[in-house]
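Supplementary Methods. Inverse-folding protocol.

Structures were first reduced to a discrete structure-token string of length 326. This string, shown here, constituted the complete conditioning input.
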């Protein structure tokens, strides 16, 4: 892989490539952006590009250094991953000790710290001293999903590289590339902007079942009157007990309403439930735009109520009845 292949993150890729090409390597970088934006992947590529002996500012992927980094065996690359949901001062001190030794393979040493916002205060203060007086040739790459949780003094000592959230289309394409069917891939991609989370959803049978149940409840709401409450009780509430799963169900229902609206507007090419065009068009014939807009508002209100610990069963019953009333 080369810098030109980071199509989803062209700006940070171009910036890092130029930093190497024009010999403007900083001692510390902070890769900031949402989960799933590809920060870890680019950090590894950046490390390969620093050590690659064949490409000027890029990675060939085949030289000894590139291969060792890919396999996680390069002696001058150190990685810190979060354990027990925190990065401790002991983790940082161990890293500092390793970096105090002479580099084994070149004049550089690189350390990559994942989820750096999870450093304890002691760990952050210890790292800060390290960033203020970095050993020669050492390059820090900190990754974070929550830049606002890092000390301002750490931010001021890093070159911040901002990553954009991947679009649903990009995530769906990645999912389809690993064998996920288009309908499920596009639906999952609309639910989360984290590829790994979307992939995990698609891999579980329960996600497909929850989606099927959502489609059935939607049809019952529009076509079978109060029987929708039977579906709600006998199928949804019997199977799903947690607020998190119900919240996912409501996200799917909200997406379904959005797709019906797009059908009404003649914009079928933009729908996410791409494998359900026929039932979407069928429902679109029965529902007005005003009723759909009201329905989406009701679903959002229900999500908000559940987020504030409202009774699960009563909230869903109220939602179904209000959706039927329009």
């Amino acid at each position: 892989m080369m810098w030109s292949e980071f199509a989803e993150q062209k700006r940070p890729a171009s910036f890092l490539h130029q930093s190497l090409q024009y010999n403007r390597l900083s001692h510390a970088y902070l890769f900031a952006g949402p989960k799933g934006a590809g920060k870890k992947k680019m950090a590894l590529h950046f490390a390969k590009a620093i050590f690659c002996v064949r490409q000027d500012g890029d990675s060939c992927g085949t030289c000894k250094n590139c291969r060792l980094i890919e396999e996680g065996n390069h002696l001058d690359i150190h990685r810190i991953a979060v354990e027990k949901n925190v990065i401790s001062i002991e983790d940082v001190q161990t890293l500092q000790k390793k970096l105090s030794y002479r580099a084994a393979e070149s004049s550089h040493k690189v350390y990559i710290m994942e989820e750096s916002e999870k450093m304890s205060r002691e760990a952050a203060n210890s790292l800060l001293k390290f960033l203020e007086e970095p050993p020669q040739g050492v390059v820090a790459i900190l990754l974070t999903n929550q830049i606002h949780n890092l000390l301002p003094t750490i931010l001021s000592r890093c070159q911040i590289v901002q990553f954009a959230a991947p679009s649903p289309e990009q995530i769906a394409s990645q999912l389809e590339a690993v064998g996920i069917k288009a309908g499920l891939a596009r639906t999952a991609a609309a639910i989360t902007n984290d590829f790994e989370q979307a992939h995990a959803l698609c891999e579980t049978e329960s996600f497909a079942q929850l989606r099927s149940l959502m489609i059935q409840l939607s049809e019952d709401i529009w076509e079978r009157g109060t029987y929708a409450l039977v579906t709600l009780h006998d199928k949804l509430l019997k199977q799903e007990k947690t607020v998190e799963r119900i919240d996912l169900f409501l996200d799917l229902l909200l997406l379904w309403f959005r797709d019906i609206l797009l059908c009404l507007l003649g914009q079928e090419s933009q729908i996410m439930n791409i494998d359900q065009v026929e039932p979407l068009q069928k429902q679109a014939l029965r529902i007005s735009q005003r009723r759909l807009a009201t329905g989406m508002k009701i679903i959002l209100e229900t999500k908000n109520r559940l987020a504030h610990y409202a009774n699960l069963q009563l909230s869903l019953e109220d939602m179904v009845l209000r959706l039927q009333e329009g």
